[in-house]
Amino acid sequence: MKKVLLTFFSLTLVLVLAACGNNNNTNNAANSAATNAPAANASTEPSTEPSAEPVTLVIGASPKPHAEILKAIAPLLEKQGIKLEIKEFTDYILPNTQLAEKELDANFFQHKPYLDDQNQKNGTDLVSVTAVHVEPFGAYSKKIKSIDELADGAKVAIPNDATNGGRALILMAKNGLITLKDDTNIASTTADITENKKNLKIVELEAAMLPRQLDEVDLALINTNYALEAGLVPTKDALFIEGADSPYANLLVARPDNKDSDAIQKLAAALTSPEAKAFIEKEYQGSIIPAF
To answer: Which helix H or strand E contains 131, and what residues bound it?
Structure first.
């Protein structure tokens, strides 16, 4: 009898342990399945890659009108993932120096004769990307209302850089104040004057200084960007001014290594867009003329 009871107890214990083992295995399997299964509310769609960082272009420009035009077309470029960082310069030297040294990605302030002259003088190879606008060059005075009032021996100020100085002399020749050997030669200097009936005293000054010298001279020939900065309205205040056929279109300038980049080409397209043309025509009322 004792043997029968012992055998029965042993069998019962084995069955209980087997049942516990099965329950543990079942629970482990369930837990594993729950862990590996996707959550009920989790999306099974692949995650979207983050958008690319915007490209930043650092552009050197004269405050007026160049920086203003760049600011006007900046929203067009932002939609294309391009951000403009505009550095304003009040001189004509540093924008080219910093572009050549890759501190700038491009600049916007100069015409081709000036660019060619600076490349030759400085051994650089900066290149035009596109022509944007023409700034008709004008003559201004606080002392006279007409060039007919210009007295014998009057003091006339012109820019001292080679191309703008020649441009000023050509404009003076076309308005009968002097005669030049060749009134189409952009490289003309005072040495090329063959006739000066009024004995005008021509002084050469840095272009940026000319508006500030209007009280000191009888007449000054001033680049339009500096005239605008001084509050002058070229179409109203200039005693005489270049026509719309001026060949001195202001350029977007870059380097050979980046001129064909996607960002620079998009900037060029924005600067010659219908939006840019509308801004120039409305904002400057003929003082600046689109070149496209």
So the answer is: strand 127-134
Residue 58 buriedness (CB in 10 A; 0-12 / 13-18 / 19+) = middle
CB 138 within 8 A of CB 226: no
Nearest to residue 98, comparing CAs of 149, 59, 146, 51?
Answer: 59
Find out whether 126 and 120 touch, Cβ atoms under 8 Å. Answer: no
The whole-model pTM stands at 0.76
Of the candidates 56, 53, 103, the residue with the CA atom closest to the CA atom of residue 82: 56
Report helix, strand or coil for 123: coil
CA dihedral (69, 111, 235, 90) in degrees, to 10, reads 60
- Strand ordering across the sheet containing 155-159: 201-205, 155-159, 219-222, 138-140, 240-241
**Dihedral angle computed from the Cα positions of residues 101, 106, 109 and 115, in that order, rounded to the nearest 10 degrees:** 60
CB 268 within 8 Å of CB 130: yes
- Cα–Cα distances (Å) from 116 to 66, 107, 124, in that order, read 20, 14, 9
Phi (first) and psi of residue 229, to 5 degrees? -60, -30
CB 291, CB 132: distance < 8 Å: yes
**pLDDT one-digit tens code per residue, 97-125:** 999 999 999 999 999 999 999 999 999 99
Q: What percent of the chain has pLDDT over 70?
A: 82
Mean pLDDT of 22-37: 40
- How far is C-alpha 22 from the geometric centre of its chain's CA atoms? 76
What's the residue count for the chain? Answer: 292
